[in-house]
Amino acid sequence: MLIIRCTSTGILVASTIIIVHTNLKINQVHILRAFACLGVLLNHATKTLWVGEEVFKSTHPVVQWDIHDYIVYGLSKIVTVEDQRVYFFFILSGFFLQYSVRESFSLSDYARKRLLRLYPAYLLSIVLSGVALFISFNLLDNAPVATSAPPRFTEFITNYYSYLTHYNFVRTSLFLATDNLFGGAYQLWSMPHEIIFCLLFPLYYHLKSHWRLALLLVLVALFCTTHNRYVHTQIFFLAGMAYYDIFSKGFTLPIKLPAACYYLTFGVLYASIQYFADPTHSHERVASVLTLLFSFLALDFFLHRKGTLPKPMKWLSQISYSVYLNHAWVLMLYCAVLSCFNSPVMFTGYFPLMSGTLLCLAVSYLFYSQVEKRIQAYAYGKQTAPADAPYVAAAA
After folding, report:
1. How far apart are CA 42 and CA 60, in angstroms?
2. Contact predicate 169/188, CB 8 Å
3. Distance between CA 293 and CA 153 in Å, rounded?
4. Which pTM value belongs to this model?
5. d(C-alpha 45, C-alpha 357), whole Å
6. CA–CA distance from 221 to each of 12, 215, 237, 315 (Å)?
7. Nearest-CA neighbor of 129 among 152, 82, 155, 163?
8. Which of these, 279, 348, 340, 345, lies nearest to 154 by C-alpha position?
9. Where are the domains of the chain?
10. Fewer CB under 10 Å: which end of the chain, C or N?
């Protein structure tokens, strides 16, 4: 913006200042994080505590379904978007980290807070995962022969138990493992990608916005030729930073659409992402492009959305990192405990799925209040911890 002012000597002086849009509803974006967090949790709960689609239909004929069956079965299908939901978290991570340093950036302060924000809770969750895996394996080993646990869960426990070693603990704790992680913490595959972003963020931050955009295009071209997964994930982090740059300068769509149009568009895009991300179609690049588009439109909608942030969404947003760290071992242990009852219909209904989801939320809140929140208080002192947690979550 060009400003012309008159000095005390009567000379007109022109100067340029940058206007930063300050009317963005940043808090509203936490709704996206909350929904994505809940989706990941339901996805993994479905895979751990449900027998699967074919067995369910054989024990619950479709002709006998009521409205409740259709709703829950539909939800079980909707939540399976696999890796694309993780990439959506990566975009939010880049967006919020860029937002958190909008006023100033100190490398030493950034490094100290990032380390405290990420590592202690991460390390404790690995230990808890190892303990849960050890208990789960022994519970299944002593369970009745005709255990009711889904076969894929029994195979999962047996496979991961062989990696319950000191060496694998060190690899996982140092972010060197992306598969066969210690304690069966399969969701932590995304942490190495987040750490790489955190290490590169100071470089990204000091690049001018147009150079960041150029780097983003280079990474896209590099991924299209190499299909390297680490290059692929950095695209989403950089996209999140670019989205913040765009919206902080006051960008809005040229046509103001009613909320119903946004919701319809979100539904179509989500269904399309689910279709192209399905292993039977395997169009990852198309699904990734649609995820980037979905994220941009979602940010545009919620950053300008009127209204207050619903308390359940705020609460779920706050504990999302704890949910990410702990939900896998909670589901694993809960499934092993239920398997000891040896009921042939235990995992064909919805009770394990719903109760397991609630148990994960309860344990995650306990972890947040007793561990994560205390670490935040130590890291930030009297300052309010910014909403820039590592919004990573995993697909199986």
Report:
1. 21
2. no
3. 35
4. 0.84
5. 6
6. 48, 10, 16, 39
7. 163
8. 340
9. 23-380
10. N
Tokens of 292: 């980037």
The sign of the dihedral angle between the CA atoms of 179, 184, 186, 188 is negative
Confidence at 129, pLDDT banded by 50, 70, 90: very high
Q: Residues 61-68: what's their mean pLDDT? A: 70
Q: Of the candidates 153, 127, 128, which has an alpha carbon nearest to the alpha carbon of residue 139?
A: 153
At 297, the amino acid letter reads L
Burial of 97 (0-12, 13-18, 19+ CB in 10 A): buried
Identify the pLDDT of residue 71: 66
Cβ atoms within 10 Å, residue 259: 10
Structure tokens at 205: 């931050």
Backbone angles phi, psi at 3, to 5 degrees: -115, 130
Q: What is the pLDDT of residue 382?
A: 53
Query: According to the model, what pLDDT value does residue 389 have?
Result: 45
Q: Are 97 and 388 in contact (CB under 8 A)?
A: yes
Tell me phi and psi for residue 303, to 5 degrees.
-70, -20
Burial class of residue 393, CB neighbours in 10 A (0-12, 13-18, 19+): buried
> Which of 58-62, 65-69, 224-228, 292-296 has the least mean pLDDT?
58-62
**218-276 tens-digit pLDDT:** 999 999 888 899 999 999 999 999 999 999 888 888 888 888 999 999 989 988 888 88
H helices of 50-102, in order, are 53-59, 67-78, 83-100
384 in helix, strand or coil? Answer: coil
Q: Mind listing the pLDDT tens digit for each residue in 174-203?
A: 999 888 899 999 999 999 999 999 999 999
Contacts of 307 (CB under 8 A, 6+ apart): 28
